[in-house]
What we know:
Layout: E1 3-7, H1 16-29, E2 41-47, E3 51-57, E4 62-63, H2 74-86, E5 94-95, E6 103-106, E7 109-112, E8 118-119, H3 124-151, E9 155-157, H4 171-175, E10 181-184
Antiparallel strand pairs: 1-3, 2-3, 4-6, 5-8, 6-7, 9-10
Helix pairs in contact: 2-3
Amino acid sequence: MDFTPAACPEEDEKGWDDEFDTEKATYAKLHSLQGVIIPKLFGELRYGNNTRALLMSDIGGASLATPEGGMLGLDEFKRLIHQALGAFSHFRITQDDVKLDNFHLVDGKIMVVDLESVNEDLSDEDFEFLVHCAVTSLSEFYERNQYGFWQRGLLKIATSSKVFTMFSPPYSTYLGMTGPITSPVTNGAIENIPPVRSSCIHGPAHGA
């Protein structure tokens, strides 16, 4: 069985101990989701100069921030990311570090990693709002990455007679082509990609 140690920085790094403890406690609360939506946590260990670490399963798959993880159509991406985040509803917890690196495409589903910063004890309204914001933000950055990967030759798009628009505005206007993603080419950094403005503010949906 593969294991992935998630190391905590030295204790003299102010604030990191709290995040380590938060992640450990969150994995305990989400025990029923371990191995399904989040990695399995096997326990805490110490090494070197008494550095604390969490021993987790290696979920494999591909980070959504990579070309290998960037092959989903936008509708499928939204469905899978909403499914992953929605699995936390029973626990009224949402991840508070919403970026593509913290989600992996594994065997046709999305798994969540990095739970050191979370929102807890949420009302139904706030939970749904934060999930909606996360899906909106992640979808925009996912499409931005896909365009960047395509632009750099890291993803290929097959031309097709099917009516399938790979990118929505603004990215579809740059392409002028349709077709499904066929394959990742290689890993690579993204540069000079048009900025995306999120349409959702991260915060409770409360009025004054």
